[in-house]
Design goal:
single chain, 521 residues, mainly alpha, 71% helix, flat, INSC_LBD_sf, cytoskeletal anchor activity, ARM-like, Insc_C
């Protein structure tokens, strides 16, 4: 999955030369009045000169974005230092930082203006920003020549206000510059017939989405989702479907992206790709990734789900088929994650999955290390099972599969010290216990679970903090499962365990187990 993500890889010497440019001595920058190092007369219009050897054509936009982001980081770092030093009253350092920030801002503005036709609205921001930077430099210099505490205190407040204005103005200017660059990329996607040119533009957009939700919002507002779905609706660009959809999934981490997807009937396009047998697995997997993103429970807005319901049967059918035929763990993870999210917001999806024999397919997948090879995939599987288990008919389906794999999930342990893997294992244990508790409403399921030694494992998870990675949520789920089994089969739990884990109030048993020392086990 990571191979498509664009990383700015450059020769080490070239990287050193680029970094050196951003660390130019302040005095030199002042003498040059922050003029750019130079724009070659024969270079293509709009190409920024970054060190030496910047290639033309498809690499121009990439270098523009790279330079812009690097310069923005340098300026943001300097402004952050100013806030810190201002609070400590280090006036010499405050002034020197203000001079550096002023030089970097002027360099960035002049360089960008030389490389692009700056929009009028952005020019206003540039002029205002440069004036404020100069004012900041002048006012901090005045503070070097006095020891008057009252004067310095009043100046500190004034400088803080100007510095805040500079930071806000700079952020707005960078957003406008990035939006300008993004429009260039989108225009390439919309107007070019070259697979290479479009693919390069998509790669640059995808790279930008990795810099956080703020950039994703800008990308969405500039119409990237619309342009990418146009690509996904043209057969001649089938080789770019997976790449375009991966970018859409990244953009849809923000509400603006999902709103754009809704406006262009993106869900219908996703359904077409998922149900098209001629679509390559990579394209269907990335379509599943978009579905997983837009159905995430973390999104506050659910308006887009209304149109999703119209295509839900086709999408769910295609996703469970993808789980069954997945060639690798990554494809299975994307498809199962989409299904897991879908089962949260509509019970009809759970009924469809039962009709499609989903429990058998998912439990069989858990036996296949090629498809289910990490706790993250098992987390998706057990999430689906937990949501299916609210349906009465789910119990008979699990009995047909004997449920042994579900109990194995209670024993899930991380294979490394990775915190994220440990957290995934906790979720697997918790949801497996929740599923078991729900299914044990059926006496036959409860009896099968007891025969498969579920009770000793649940007790171990309750009594041993390390077995559950000190997770309180796992403890609560296991106590609930034990009490459900005890209610159906009272003789399945020994007297001492019953006295501590079943008889007291749930909160009292929780407090007892959460305070246990490991030697108690």
């Amino acid at each position: 999955m990571n191979e498509i993500y664009l990383c700015f890889r450059v020769d080490s010497v070239q990287r050193w030369m680029e970094d050196l440019r951003h660390m130019t001595e302040v005095e030199c920058m002042c003498v040059l009045q922050a003029k750019p190092i130079g724009v070659e007369e024969d270079s293509q219009q709009g190409e920024l000169i970054v060190g030496s050897g910047v290639s033309a054509g498809d690499h121009v936009a990439r270098n523009n974005l790279q330079t812009l982001l690097r310069r923005a980081l340098v300026v943001s770092t300097e402004l952050g230092k100013m806030f810190q030093r201002l609070g400590k009253g280090r006036w010499q350092r405050v002034h020197s930082t203000a001079v550096r920030a002023n030089c970097h801002v002027r360099s960035l503005v002049h360089e960008y203006s030389a490389a692009r036709n700056t929009p009028p609205e952005m020019q206003k921001y540039e002029k205002s920003l440069l004036e404020k930077c100069m004012e900041l430099t002048n006012i901090t210099e005045r503070c070097l020549h006095t020891d008057d505490e009252f004067f310095l205190k009043s100046m500190r407040e004034a400088i803080h206000e100007i510095l805040t204005d500079v930071s806000d103005s700079f952020s707005n200017m960078i957003d406008m510059a990035l939006a300008n660059e993004i429009r260039v990329l989108i225009k390439q996607i919309e107007s070019s017939d070259s697979l290479h040119t479009i693919g390069s533009a998509i790669s640059n957009l995808l790279s930008l989405t990795q810099d956080g939700p703020q950039l994703c919002s800008i990308i969405a507002k500039e119409g990237a989702v619309v342009a990418l779905f146009k690509i996904c609706r043209q057969d001649r660009f089938r080789d770019l479907y997976a790449h375009a959809l991966r970018t859409v999934a990244s953009i849809c981490c923000v509400e603006e992206g999902i709103n754009q997807l809704e406006k262009v009937d993106g869900i219908l396009c996703l359904a077409d790709i998922l149900t098209d047998d001629s679509s390559v697995e990579a394209a269907r997997a990335e379509a599943a990734a978009v579905v997983a993103q837009i159905t995430s429970p973390h999104h506050t807005s659910t308006q887009h789900l209304a149109s999703f319901l119209e295509s839900m049967h086709d999408i769910v059918t295609a996703l469970i088929k993808l789980c069954e035929t997945a060639s690798c763990g990554e494809v299975f993870l994307l498809a199962s994650a989409a299904l897991a999210n879908i089962t949260f917001f509509d019970s009809m999806a759970c009924e469809i999955l039962l009709q499609l024999n989903a429990i058998h397919i998912l439990l069989q997948a858990c036996k296949d290390r090629q498809r289910v090879d990490t706790p993250y995939s098992k987390d998706q599987v057990v999430t689906i099972l937990a949501n299916l288990s609210v349906l009465e008919q789910c119990a008979s389906e699990v009995l047909q599969e004997q449920g042994s794999l579900l109990l194995l999930l209670l024993g899930e342990k991380p294979s490394s010290s990775s915190p994220s893997e440990g957290a995934a294992c906790e979720r697997v244990q918790q949801k497996a216990a929740v599923t078991l508790a729900r299914l044990s409403r059926d006496p036959d399921v409860a009896q099968t679970a007891i025969q498969l030694k579920a009770v000793p494992r649940l007790i171990e998870l309750c009594r041993s903090p390390t077995e559950r990675n000190n997770s309180d949520s796992v403890l609560v789920a296991c106590l609930a499962a034990l009490r459900r089994l005890a209610a159906g089969c009272p003789g399945s739990i020994e007297a001492a365990d019953h006295q501590q884990l079943i008889k007291p109030r749930l909160v009292d048993s929780f407090l007892l187990c959460s305070n246990m020392e490991e030697s108690f086990v």
